[in-house]
Input
Amino acid sequence: MSADLPPFPQPQENVGPPELLQLGTGTDVDEPCLRADAARNRARLLEAAERLVAEHGAAALTMEAVAAAACVGKGTVFRRFGDRTGLLAALLDHSERKFQAALLSGPPPLGPGAPPVERLRAFGCALLRRSIDELDLLLAGEPSAERRHTFPPRRFLRHHVALLLREAVPDADSELLSHTLMAYLDAALIHHLTQQCGLPAERVRAGWLDLVARLTGTDTPAPAGDAPAAAAGTPVPVDATPAPAGDAPAAAPSA
Output
C-alpha cells in the first residue's frame, strides 16, 4: 500500500500566494493511457463520498462505506486517497476549488466585475451558505490551531478579502481587518451560532451584511448576488417596517 501514497505530499508544493490547493488528484501523475479512467474513478468516489456526508454526516465517512457506495473494491479507495484523512482532504479540496473558481472567474457580484463592497457582501453570503451546507465536513477537516491561518485555502480566501477591502477602504489596515471579517465566517463559529445557539441562518447573514456596512462606511447593504435573501436582507427589518408611514397623512394636515 505504501507505493500508492506518494501523490499525497503534493500540498506541500503549493506554498505560494493564492493558488488552488492541490491534494494529489492522481490524474496528473498517472500514465496517459490511464488518465481518463483515473479521473472518472476519482470523480465517482468523490460523488459517493459527498452523498454519504450529506445523508449521514462526516462521521459515517469511512473507506469501506465509500467503496460500497461507489460499488468498487476497498483497495480502489485506498489507492486513490491513501486513508480517511486523504479522502476528507480531497472532498474539501473539491468544494474549495469550486468556490475559488466562482471568485476568480464566476459571474458578479461574487466573481469579478462588481464594486468591491458588493463583492464583499456576496462573498460572505456565499461562504456562509456553503459553510452551513457543508458544516459537518468543514468541521471534520478543520486544521489545527497552529495551521489555521496558514492553511492554503483559508489563506487564499483571506487574501481575497484583503484585496477587496483595499479597494473599498483604501485608508484602512486591510490585512488586519481581513482577519476580522474571516473570523465572522469561521466554520466553528457558524456551528456555534446555528447549532448551539439556534440562530437562524438569515440572522447570521444579516449580521455579515451589517458588519460589512459598518466597516466600509456604506449604507443599506443590498446583497445583489444573493437573490433569495435580497428582500429579507435589505438591511435589518428596522427600516423595513416604517410604522410612521401610517402617521404621515395625519402629520401633513396638522401642519
User: Anything to note?
Assistant: The chain is about 65% helix and 0% strand. The longest helix spans residues 32-56.
